[in-house]
Amino acid sequence: MSSESATIVQRLWNYCNVLRDDGVSYGDYVEQLTYLLFLKMDDERAREMGQPSAIPAEYNWDSLRALEGAALEAHYRDILAALGRGSGLIPVIFRKAQNRIQDPAKLRRLITLIDGETWIGLDMDVKGEIYEGLLEKNAQDTKSGAGQYFTPRPLIRAMVDVMAPAPGQRICDPAAGTGGFLIAAHDYIARRHGPLDREQWQHLNHRALHGWEIVDNTARLCVMNLYLHGIGSNGGQSPIHVDDSLASHPGEYFDLVLTNPPFGKKSSVTFVTDEGELRREAQTIVREDFWTSTSNKQLNFVQHVRNILEIHGRAAIVVPDNVLFEGGAGETVRRRLLHECDVHTLLRLPTGIFYAQGVKANVLFFDRRPAGERPWTRTLWIYDLRTNVHFTLKQHPLTRADLDEFVACYNPANRHERTPTWSEEPSAGPGQGPEGRWRAYSYEELMARDKANLDIFWLRDESLEETANLPDPDVLAGEILEDLGAALEQFRAIAEDLGEGV
């Protein structure tokens, strides 16, 4: 992040600490910033650039400037209610919006703080960095649960680098969160394929990117994040659909799908019994286009992603370990996926990189293929970035450089020409040997494994050796927290199966 961006982020975030005394959470604060930033930028577009305002005059930024006290608070509530009606980009941002700042004096101070910056004059990258910085700070607040909607940006960049999106392609994230994948794909196309002509820019900014997000609050953060990066900035239709993407097929297909579905194994619905008790029930997704019906949300997302791809479309999806080894519906999905798609790459992720703790995850890369009798998967290449690798969110965070070897091994320029780094021979060649993290398994080897289990590892785990030295205390503490988090997730899954809550 540039020093200019970091300074503004810190200035805005410092004021959040003032509001915390009044019970305004980090998430609530970022939401209020979202509403006010949108109003301010719309005002600047009209004043500085002569563009028509997307906001009715009675609800625009200027209408807030002169108000104080109870009049300001009442008018702000009216703005939020009015702009949340209808359809399009603006109602997605203001959908079900509420004023969480109950002290009019503090609301006045926040408006003055935002009014003091000329946001439209900032470079697009700077504006995007500022908002991304605020979203990451929000994700670090473990109590809010916002971390599950925030995928580590170094991982996103590496996934986009190997997927290499191109101008003219339609790109989808069916679990968009705060929009990290869509923004990274947009940035990759703009930087790697520039200069783009006018039609290519129009397509990239207004037609290329599509996302679904079921949570209203997260959807508004996503739309604003895209807006600040120049995506959907014409104020027309939102690139984000506020809906459950698993409910049905959208009726359209995409060239690329990049996604990290929310953590948590089961899909469930909450209802009120006749006695007034809140109960949760596992929700089995039944769709004719799915290979199998299951309440496992992650398996449903794998099936959904495959079904929304164009023929020869490509996908990269973050999945927890259970998707790789679970029996029943899991085995069905894996066998069908290996047969009907080209499942060519699996990245085993290290622990300690997600803000939602207890996650042991992987990235699965596959291409959709036409229907046929023969299996499309020939070889699955696996990169193990987990064994003997230790990350923590603060002392030793994941960086993009940590994924350089994976990107090089993937060989995005021609993934059909790959060289393993693992070999049984200690002196197999430069960069090769028994400690290599990159090796291949044939389709026949995969299908011969019990339940077509893809949870494959081969490196010697140094932590299991009696002579191994203990890791640094911060790494050890991080691993303990990861294990406790994983155990809690398992308890939650058991409780959901029993119809209880934890």
Structure commentary:
The chain has 502 residues and is of the alpha/beta class. The protein contains 17 helices and 11 strands. Mean pLDDT is 85; it is low at 268-274.
Question: Descriptors for this entry?
Answer:
502 residues; Rossmann fold; 2 domains; nine-stranded mixed beta sheet; two-stranded antiparallel sheet; 17 helices; 11 strands
The gist of it:
The protein has helices at residues 3-20, 26-49, 62-65, 69-83, 89-94, 104-115, 124-139, 153-163, 180-192, 198-206, 216-228, 297-308, 322-325, 329-340, 404-410, 443-448, 473-497, and strands at residues 171-173, 209-213, 240-242, 254-259, 268-272, 278-282, 309-320, 341-348, 361-368, 379-384, 438-442. The chain has 502 residues and is α/β, with parallel strands linked by helices.
Helix and strand arrangement:
Layout: H1 3-20, H2 26-49, H3 62-65, H4 69-83, H5 89-94, H6 104-115, H7 124-139, H8 153-163, E1 171-173, H9 180-192, H10 198-206, E2 209-213, H11 216-228, E3 240-242, E4 254-259, E5 268-272, E6 278-282, H12 297-308, E7 309-320, H13 322-325, H14 329-340, E8 341-348, E9 361-368, E10 379-384, H15 404-410, E11 438-442, H16 443-448, H17 473-497
Parallel strand pairs: 1-2, 1-4, 2-3, 4-7, 8-10
Antiparallel strand pairs: 5-6, 7-9, 8-9, 10-11
Instruction: Please write the CATH class name of the largest domain.
Output: Alpha Beta
Distance between the termini: 39 Å
Poorly predicted regions are 268-274
- Shape field: globular
Total beta strand runs: 11
Strand content: 5-15%
Count of the domains: 2
Main sheet: strands, sense, barrel: 9 strands, mixed
The average pLDDT is 85
CATH superfamily of the largest domain: Vaccinia Virus protein VP39
Rg (C-alpha, Å)? 24 Å
Helix content class: 40-55%
Order the strands across the largest sheet as they lie in space: 3-2-1-4-7-9-8-10-11
Question: Order of SSEs, N→C?
Answer: HHHHHHHHEHHEHEEEEHEHHEEEHEHH
Kindly identify the CATH topology of the largest domain: Rossmann fold
Protein structure class: alpha/beta
Query: Helical element count?
Result: 17
In CATH, the architecture of the largest domain is 3-Layer(aba) Sandwich
